[in-house]
Amino acid sequence: MQNQADKWNVYGTELSSRLLIGSALYPSPAIMQESIRQSDAEIVTVSLRRQSPEQAGGQAFWQQIQSLGKKILPNTAGCHSISEAVTLAQMSREIFETDWIKLELVGDEYNLQPDPIDLVKATEILLNDGFKVLPYCTDDLVICRHLVELGCEVLMPWGSPIGTGKGLLNPYALSAIRHRFPNISLVVDAGIGLPSHATQALELGYDAVLLNSAIAQAQDPVLMARAFKAAIEAGRQGYLAGRMPEKDTANPSTPTLGMPFWHQL
User: Fold this and answer.
1) Could you state, in order of their start, the residue ranges of all structural domains in the chain?
2) Which of the residues 6, 52, 57, 184 has an alpha carbon 20 to 30 A from that of 12?
3) Vertex 190, ends 67 and 91: CA angle to 5°?
4) Which residues contact 6 (CB under 8 A, 6 or more apart)?
5) What is the pLDDT of residue 4?
6) Which phi and psi angles does 18 have, rounded to 5°?
7) CB burial string 96-132: b at 16+ within 10 A, e below
8) Residue closest to 82 by CA, chosen among 136, 118, 120, 131
9) DSSP label at 251?
10) Consecutive 10-residue averages of pLDDT for the chain (265 residues)
């Protein structure tokens, strides 16, 4: 059960769950649906390019997503140019009936890194067109600053390249973004492979994580969905509790002051 008092915000929408979940790569539609249910996620990402729900071939998938009663977050996965991303976002708005868009714009095929320059340009275009943009970016503080200055209320920096499962490769960079933008909702997106990676993200003060492959490609996706739900709750509680100070030297947990000492004669 999520703590109803501990919510976070996406463009004015309050959310209790701190897990956003993808809808691709599952072994079957039934496993996808049950995994999403068990995760307790309130937001499900969908790709118009991959699913084409406006066509008869994608209608069944779209109905399955709708039956879950979740908030839909369309994404522009697979786009390589500003015009392509903007066009797909506009199509998604019409089909999915939402002005939310997760903006993805591939800059390099080697590691599918987001294009930082075109991402900023596309973000400005979409914001001016009335979209609520959730940009998927690298953990570059300066790029994040430009996106915030344009008007983004949510940022989605990667933990590591998408689909790698390597976790948070640069916790320092992610922490710097958190400290620099304390009032912006931050979601670690991409690279999460284990529940412990999600815990770490929440312990850094991030508001949520978005993942797909880590659940969909697990040997037991439904069980992994439950694991991520628990891990995210643990990470959030750990962040709120406040960690102990780090020290360079060992300190005994049991005090020695006032303890009797026994000497062998």
Assistant:
1) 8-241
2) 52
3) 50
4) 16, 236, 240
5) 54
6) -105, 20
7) beebbbbbbbbbeeeebbbbbebbbebbbbbbeeebb
8) 118
9) -
10) 75 96 92 95 86 54 81 94 96 92 93 94 98 97 98 97 95 98 97 97 98 96 97 96 88 67 57
CA distance 89 to 101: 7
Which tokens in the block code for residue 65? 């997503």
Identify the H or E element spanning 216: helix 213-216
What is the fold of 8-241? TIM Barrel (3.20.20)
Token reading at 255: 């005090």
Structure tokens at 205: 């003060």
In 3D space, the residue among 240, 202, 217 whose CA is nearest the CA of residue 17 turns out to be 202
Residues labelled catalytic: 102
DSSP bridge pairs for 188: 209
In this structure, the strands spanning 154-157 and 132-137 are: parallel
Pairing assessment for the beta strands 113-114 and 106-108 based on DSSP bridges: antiparallel
Three-class secondary structure of residue 87 per DSSP: helix
Cα distance between residue 94 and residue 74, in whole Å: 11
Q: What is the pLDDT of residue 53?
A: 47
Among 160, 131, 161, 136, CA closest to 147: 136
Distance CA 8, CA 11 (A): 10
What is the pLDDT, as a whole number, of residue 62? 73
**Alpha-carbon distance 254 to 137, whole Å?**
46
- Cα 129 to Cα 87, 125, 218: the distances in Å are 12, 6, 38
